């Protein structure tokens, strides 16, 4: 049967098959021994070529956002913008004896294991895909890492300044409290701090040639 995502996934080499159950006991304290605990298998080939699929333990309360975050950590992609990744569900049904495939993009708050349980075994699967609409934002980080000049971040239009700060800190292998840092729109005349809850892409799109976005320490009282 031809999958709706075959055109997306074809041509991606698979050098190893990673299908072992991830050991999440030490990280997911919310998983219990109750009957609502199960497994979720997610196709990750389009996100990282050296993988085929990964399987994690989940509960009915596990959201699609949590699944995406867990896979980015497992695939060592923690420096990527989580808002650029979506969890998709591919459903297979039958109409007049022929298979019908439907593809759904899950909302971040949806519960994939709950959705999986609503369909017969083997009639659904999940795919992790990166949204191609990212915008490249340059953040000058020499104030916090003298050996560096700037970091280029591929960001979603939903990503806030505080989320971008976390990505920059991860790229610099700094694990400080994000509240100790701020992003500023620097001009030849003065610097203006960018509010934490503002989309950084919206600021970057309006930047003039003599303006740049910088990160630096801020006073915390």
Automatic annotation (TrEMBL):
User: Which Pfam family, any one of them, does this sequence belong to?
Assistant: RA
Which GO terms are recorded in the biological process aspect for this UniProt protein?
positive regulation of epidermal growth factor receptor signaling pathway; positive regulation of fibroblast growth factor receptor signaling pathway; signal transduction
Enumerate the InterPro entries for this protein. RA_dom (IPR000159), Ubiquitin-like_domsf (IPR029071)
Question: Where would I find the Ras-associating domain in this sequence?
Answer: 36-133, 134-220
Q: What is this protein called?
A: Ras-associating domain-containing protein
């Amino acid at each position: 049967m031809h999958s709706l995502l075959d055109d997306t996934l074809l041509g991606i080499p698979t050098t190893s098959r990673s299908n072992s159950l991830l050991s999440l006991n030490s990280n997911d304290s919310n998983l219990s021994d109750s009957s609502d605990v199960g497994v979720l298998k997610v196709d990750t080939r389009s996100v990282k070529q050296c993988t085929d699929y990964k399987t994690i333990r989940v509960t009915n309360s596990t959201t699609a956002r949590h699944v995406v975050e867990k896979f980015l950590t497992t695939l060592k992609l923690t420096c990527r913008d989580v808002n650029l990744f979506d969890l998709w569900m591919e459903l297979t049904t039958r109409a007049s004896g022929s298979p019908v495939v439907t593809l759904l993009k899950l909302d971040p708050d949806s519960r994939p294991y709950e959705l999986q349980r609503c369909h017969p075994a083997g009639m659904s699967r999940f795919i992790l895909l990166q949204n191609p609409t990212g915008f490249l934002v340059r953040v000058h980080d020499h104030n916090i890492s003298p050996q560096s000049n700037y970091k280029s971040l591929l960001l979603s239009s939903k990503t806030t300044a505080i989320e971008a700060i976390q990505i920059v800190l991860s790229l610099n292998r700094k694990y400080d409290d994000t509240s100790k840092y701020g992003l500023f729109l620097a001009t030849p005349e003065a610097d203006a701090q960018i509010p934490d809850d503002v989309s950084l892409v919206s600021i970057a799109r309006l930047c003039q040639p003599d303006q740049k976005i910088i990160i630096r320490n801020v006073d915390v009282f």
